[in-house]
Amino acid sequence: MLILQNDLIGHLLSLQEIVDAVERAMVAYEKKEVIVPLRMHLDKNKDTMITMPAWGDKYSGIKIANIFPANREKNLPVTIGALLLNDGATGQPLALMNASKITALRTGALGALGLKYLTPQDTKNIGLIGCGIQGIHQAVFACAVRNISTIHYLHRSDEGAARLISFVKEYFPNISVVASYSAEELLSNTNVVIAATTSPEPVLPDDEGLLKGKCIISIGSYKPNMQELPDAAFRLAGKLFIDSEFARVETGDCINPVKKSILKETDLYTLGKLITREQHADVHGNTVYKSAGMAVYDLFVAQAMYEKAIESDQGVQVEF
Q1: Neighbours of 157 (CB within 10 A)
Q2: pTM reported for the whole predicted model
Q3: Domains (ranges, CATH) in the chain?
């Protein structure tokens, strides 16, 4: 069995190769070429363990993702865990990977696909709320699909700002990273906002005047009692794009707009339907996208990582 360490995972594939893998996963999901059950949540106080299996053509896999919000104060990733990749025909375990890095990479790619299909091609700047592991990956993946010149971020701590600036400069040294000190200021600087927080309440003002003409992407909320975006965002857009059908019942950003009759169930569409051209979006108007994640995205990124590691003779082989 091959062990793929955290540092290796971060450099095996280019940002674009990861985006391509996640886009292939979206298409496979739309074509029902993969088996993906609803993930299982186990909660203990504020901590959550999620098990996420998926079975594709050549591979199967299962990710155990642990979300421990207090890890932030311990200088540990909030999302931490492991992913096991198996041979889809024999069940033989093939590789063990750091799930934190896989999650950050595929979630960054999911946000990037929202930008690719829901914003104009000439988009030059984005706004970011949340400078944790997920947030900083959203920033660099956005730059992989759009020619971004400036990233505006909501400043909440010097530590978060330093982490974001350092990470962006590692990949894109010429991009400007500029602080905003309120959500209102952030919205005045950009038409694209990505929220990657663990906030249970909206992180943007519920003001149609401030939100008009924006593309807003929610990455962070992952439970029914969490709503990262304000009602006005859904009201202005009139529809909500999601990364899986499971998101309808998993997150407050999908559940609450329907419960409040802001949107109907039929107003929620998977982003994959944009890729396959079964749906369309007005990228010059209001658009909203909610990414909740799904095991098939982990599987497709993991198998791409595994194949590249085998091809380039990287990783550590151990007897199993």
Answers
A1: 9
A2: 0.94
A3: 2-103+296-317 (3.30.1780.10), 107-293 (3.40.50.720)
